Amino acid sequence: MPFFKLFAQRPLVLPLALAATVAMVAISEVAHWQSIQTLQAMASGTAWSSQPSLQEQRESLLHTLMLGRIGVAVLSVICLLALVVVLRQGLALQQRQLAQQLGAQVADHRVRQLANQKAQRQLEAEVAQRTLQLTELTQHLQTARDDERGRLARELHDELGALLTSAKLDAARIRLRLAGTAPEALERLAHLTQSLDQVIAFKRRITEDLSPSSLVHLGLVATLEILAGDFAKTSGTPVHCSLQEVPLTPAAELTVYRLVQEAMTNISKYAQASQVWLSLARVGEQVQLQVRDDGVGFDPGVPARSAHGLLGMRYRVQAEQGGMVLSTAPGGGTQIDVVLPAAWPLHQAAA
Ligand SMILES: Nc1ncnc2c1ncn2[C@@H]1O[C@H](COP(=O)(O)OP(=O)(O)OP(=O)(O)O)[C@@H](O)[C@H]1O
Ligand SMILES: [Mg+2]
Q1: How far apart are the C-alpha atoms of 311 and 317, rounded to whole Å?
Q2: CATH code at 218-350
Q3: CB-hemisphere CA count at 13 Å for 269?
Q4: Sign of dihedral through CA atoms 280, 284, 285, 286?
Q5: Which ligand is nearest to the CA of 332?
Q6: Could you tell me if the CB of 334 is within 6 A of ligand 1?
């Protein structure tokens, strides 16, 4: 096999060397036989056989010629072999250099690959860190927003509530004073009292929307029932409720409330549903919430122009160490499943 490689590498050198060897041996042979013929011609002309000294010289000459002939042949073959050895060494050297070059290229490629992998890992770590920071910031902003809404709701309730109540009392006193004296003024006063009642109802609605006090006073189940009732009344879509009392922290209860609120808003805005289902239950050490509609659904893979509602739901649920799954498809309704950790473990609740 190496011979063929040598031949493939140097297609001219070996045939030329072989031809030179054959030529050298042929020239040597021709010279040898010509010398023999010359000696024989000389022998036929002289009386060598009768002169022993000449006979001996002839024998010695023939011997020398034979040695020269063998020497040329052997040297030619040795030269040919040496050439083959030198060529083989050259080929081996070339292959070693090639292998080294290949090795260097492979090592270079590996180094670049490792550098790329390292850069990618760094990038991924950076993205993960930024995502975490953004999630924390969003959760912080959400909490701050809830706190601010709570403060505003309290101020509205206390300050505006007190002012409106005092105005209503004043109106009642004036009505008593004017009783039977000025019917026109009494009519105006009745209108004023009616307006004050509307303002009080409006204030209550705003206060409730800002921070649902019913969560504290009535509990989560009753608050969700009120929310579902209001939704059914304004949208005309019936809501089937299956709500159990569940152990949740106040923050988690607010999360559930806001989530249902946003889900209902989305249903009234987009779903065109004929029915809505709302369920809340405790399963093991988890609380499960589900909001489902049989409306038009949507493709969650298509980015919406504004998707803060669904995103906000996710952040809120994550902030409470829970998880949320959105299942929807065009024409297949929409279902939101949320799992939140129960406020205390099951064995404690049973005790
Ligand atoms: N129940 C649903 N039925 C049909 N489509 C829905 C439903 N809920 C959400 N969507 C679709 O998902 C998109 C994103 O909803 P999301 O609540 O995140 O944002 P939005 O309601 O458009 O705006 P925002 O809530 O920020 O005011 C909506 O634009 C709507 O196309
Ligand atoms: Mg929305």
Answers
A1: 10
A2: 3.30.565.10
A3: 8
A4: negative
A5: 1
A6: yes
